[in-house]
Specification:
With 378 residues, this protein is an alpha/beta fold. It is 38% helix and 21% strand. It has 13 helices and 15 strands. A hairpin with a 2-residue loop joins strand 11 and strand 12. Strands 14-13-12-11-7-10-9-8-15 form a nine-stranded mixed sheet. A six-stranded parallel sheet has the order 3-2-1-4-5-6, with helices on both faces.
Length: 378
Amino acid sequence: MSGGRAFATVADHGEPLRVVVVGAGAMARVWLRAVLASPDVALAGVVDLDAAEAAKAVEETGASGVPTGTSLTALAPAARPDAVIDVTVPESHLPVTLEALGLGLPVLGEKPAAATLPDALRLAAAAELAGLLFMVSQSRRYHPHLFTLKQQAGRLGRLGILTTEFFRAPRFGGFRDAMDHPLLLDMAIHPFDTARWLLDAEPVSVRCEEYNPSWSWYAGAASATAVFEMTGGIRYVYTGSWCSPGLQTSWNGAWRLSGEHGSATWDGGHPPAVETEEPGDAPAEAAAGAPAVERGVAGSLAEFVHALRTGTVPMGEIHDNVMSLAMVTAALESARTDRRVRIDDLLGAALAEAIASSPGPEAGLLRSRRTARPAPAA
């Protein structure tokens, strides 16, 4: 989806940005603690359909006295928020974000942008029409060693191959154990999104297989291998499993990037290693000059505030983030149909569905697009 990405800023009068957190589950506790720890934001309220859960989340995170409620629209007049942080389940991202935008409030949402690609396209159109920022938190981009890896990629010349290996054995219990596609739906968007950013490339097609080892404690396929063709002819290969005990990778996975002049690796926790064919160059950690980047959700939050204060388009802005969700959707479709899936075909179908399900102004904006693929940010 192409189009303008300018959005209204929030004037800085020397006061923290007031935010309401919508959702009071386990991930909301992570966000609440990040909000309370940040000097740049102030917690204005917590909303959840379960009033008791909202109150419990406030108490457990040390935010006593912060107003709670079961409706963002009802709480907003008293809370006077400048923005909303949406930490609800994916199926609620569409209505919660539309509600916030309708109240004139920019949104920082947990990944994925929405439960489906057509819903994400609708939200991109709604944010554009409202002139407000909708940013999706891809929190695993925010790691200083990952930023170093991206810097070092310039030493490798033309890039050709990027791989991610992700092998963990978490026993979550609950909904993940019963999901049809636990790895691809719940986790793979992080490395897929990171691959786009590292390569400065977009997906063209994918061939993906899902499978479930005989010992798996998941009902759905907990393992997958996907080969993406990216723009510029680059290949991105992802292999992962959520039921692989022993010699586990970090939660960020293990990465290898190969180019015409050398390669770089990152184990997801330590500084990356780089080796090139330059005379005298030997394998070495590329630790020097690592950017000062806040990690995880704190990094997402800091960038959201900076964007609203300055008008700078942040990582995760919805028009761009649509492509990360498209990679997940395409991988699922490839695994389901046992065929190679072209991303533009998928985006075309999603755009048609988004137009059919959108109200007048959104549908009109979506119809004006010749493609759902975003144009480069200005």
